Amino acid sequence: MQIEIQNLSKKYSARQVLFDINLSINLDSKVIGLVGPNGAGKSTLMRVISGVLLPNSGKILLNDANKQSDYNRWALKNTLYVPAGERGLINRLSLIDNFRYFCGLKNVNYKDGLDYFESMAQALEMKNLIHRDYDKMSTGQKKSAALLNALALKTKLILLDEPSNGLDIDAQDGLKHVLNLTKNNGHQKVLVSSHDVNLLTSVCDGYVFIREGHIIAKLNSPASHEDLIDLYHQSFKKEG
Ligand SMILES: Nc1ncnc2c1ncn2[C@@H]1O[C@H](COP(=O)(O)OP(=O)(O)OP(=O)(O)O)[C@@H](O)[C@H]1O
Fold first, then answer.
1. Who contacts 109 (Cβ-Cβ below 8 Å, separation ≥6)?
2. Which of 22, 126, 190, 229 is spaced 20 to 30 Å from 33 by Cα?
3. In the CATH scheme, what is the homologous superfamily, with its name and number, of domain 30-54+80-235?
4. Predicted ipTM?
């Protein structure tokens, strides 16, 4: 299955931030890095793909459907955008109750999902936090909680916005570990926007480079730390 983004543009009021985006996203269980400078349009693109924002022009289609409305319906159930910062889950619910709530939203059987939820909680060292309310967690715990929820739901595509921000060293290792586990489990495609070269090169199987709202390059293979930094400098060389 493949998501086809065709000639997509997005404006905030009069200000255009995505320009004529064309991108195919194969829903295999790989991790793709979305890389670009601050303000390039990464979060906006991920929000549009998840259906949280609608494009102003252009389309997103599934390969087996040719209507935008089919994609929008599919995206509501099968994609999850995990925002940067401390948002993402419901404040006054525990992590496990958040999972139950999101199971309802995404039409996932809660009881069937519990074993996988617990195994992901173990992998992220979050098992002792699953009964804690989201608003009583630290910044890093909230990030890990939102990630755990997204993985446990097994939505076909998860869009992670700067997932390593605020994580301590152990939690960063946990993040890399679960993203690599996810590939082996084969349930989910992950699109990850990050400025963390260490995270990107540890988990990504390919990259999309975005500058000023334009996709400027793609790489269909993993990259070493040095190669990614070289590519970044080549792609985003400052003028003048
Ligand atoms: N709600 C909004 N209203 C108006 N402009 C916005 C809004 N959200 C983002 N923008 C603008 O759109 C552009 C793209 O922002 P976006 O958050 O998508 O970039 P980004 O690549 O994710 O950046 P960063 O790496 O800094 O998180 C920026 O110029 C930003 O100021």
1. 103
2. 126
3. P-loop containing nucleotide triphosphate hydrolases (3.40.50.300)
4. 0.98
Helical H segments across 79-134, by residue range: 95-106, 110-123
pTM over 0.90: yes
User: Residue 194: what pLDDT?
Assistant: 96
Ligand 1 binding pocket includes 53 (Cβ within 6 Å): no
Residue nearest atom 16 in ligand 1 by C-alpha distance: 41
Residues 6+ apart with CB under 8 A from 73: none
Question: Does the beta carbon of 12 sit less than 6 angstroms from any atom of ligand 1?
Answer: yes
Would you say 201 and 228 are in contact if contact means Cβ atoms under 8 Å apart? yes
For a mutational test of ligand 1's pocket, the pick from 8, 11, 12, i.e. the residue with the most ligand atoms closer than 8 A to its C-beta, is 12
Give helix then strand counts, H and E, for the chain: 8, 9
How many CA atoms lie less than 13 Å away from 129 in the CB half-sphere? 24
The sheet that has 57-62: what strands, in order across it?
A: 15-26, 2-12, 57-62
- Segment 171-202, tens digit of pLDDT: 899 899 889 988 888 879 999 999 999 999 99
213 lines ligand 1 (CB under 6 A): no
Q: CB of 145 within 8 A of CB of 91?
A: no
